[in-house]
Design a protein that fits this description.
Elements: E1 7-11, H1 15-26, E2 31-35, H2 38-48, E3 52-56, E4 58-59, E5 62-63, H3 64-71, E6 79-83, H4 88-97, E7 101-104, H5 109-124, E8 132-135, E9 138-141, E10 146-149, E11 152-154, H6 158-169, E12 175-176, H7 177-184, H8 193-206, E13 216-219, E14 223-226
Parallel strand pairs: 1-2, 1-3, 3-6, 6-7
Antiparallel strand pairs: 4-5, 8-9, 9-10, 10-11, 12-14, 13-14
Helix pairs in contact: 3-4, 6-8
Domain OmpR/PhoB-type: 130-228
Pfam family, one: Trans_reg_C
Keywords: DNA-binding, Phosphoprotein
Length: 233
């Protein structure tokens, strides 16, 4: 007898989007619960304990960002926001509220499924801190504080190393400018250009072509994420 697939709670009020996602998700072995409102989502979340959430921001009886914040008070299950909003501030707010990732509508099923796989891998990973983190040709050895690309050692400044380790520990997950500033420079630093400047220098050292990065990906207006192996996004 095979194990049942991960249980996904889809919170979406548009019938056409729900039909599309129902077909895509269930065809790949996931079990699906559906809610069209914040109230239904809260009820299903507490009665079924989903493994992953797909959450629209615009709901008829409340805001998806507030629902994300409420869910994060008691569950660590991955939350992927499905956003039709054009404002990047909404995406940043959702990620800061506790979402693990976001996908902007319209989107393809393959992109969403790839993001779901990455999010579930993170949730299922051992809580023990790894000593070696790999992403494609990049290797970060935390014990030796050594970074190599395709076997060649790369020399980073202390800030560049902190940036890379933060991204590597969260590979596949979008980190906002605000989150990066707080983790690397401290909670009282607000100058977002620090992130852009040092990220550009880091890319020069680890990317084959810094002008067309394939390891550190920019989420425009939001932040950055390190591409994880198997991430098709």
């Amino acid at each position: 007898m095979t194990d049942p697939g991960p249980l996904v709670l889809l919170v979406e009020d548009e019938p056409a989007v729900r039909r599309f996602l129902r077909a895509a998700v269930t065809a790949h072995g996931y079990r699906l619960l559906e809610a069209g409102t914040v109230r239904e989502a809260r009820q299903l979340a507490t009665s079924h304990v989903p493994d992953l959430y797909l959450l629209d921001l615009g709901l008829p009886d409340g805001d998806g960002i507030e629902l994300t914040r409420a869910l994060r008070e008691w569950t660590r299950a991955p939350i992927i926001v499905l956003s039709a909003r054009g404002r990047e501030e909404d995406k940043v707010d959702a990620l800061d509220a506790g979402a693990d990732d976001y996908v902007t509508k319209p989107f393809g099923a393959n992109e969403l499924l790839a993001r779901m796989r990455v999010a579930l891998r993170h949730a299922q990973a051992s809580p023990k801190e790894p000593t070696l983190i790999e992403a494609g040709p990049l290797r970060v050895d935390l014990e030796r504080r050594a970074v190599t690309v395709s076997g060649s050692e790369v020399h980073l400044t202390p800030i560049e190393y902190k940036l890379l380790v933060l991204l590597a520990r969260n590979a596949g997950k979008v980190l906002t400018h605000r989150q990066i500033l707080s983790q690397v420079w401290g909670p009282n630093v607000t100058q977002s250009h620090y992130v852009r400047v040092h990220m550009a220098e880091l890319r020069k050292k680890i990317e084959p072509d810094p002008a067309r990065p394939t390891l550190i990906l920019t989420e425009l207006g939001v932040g950055y994420r390190l591409r994880e192996a198997g991430d098709g996004a």
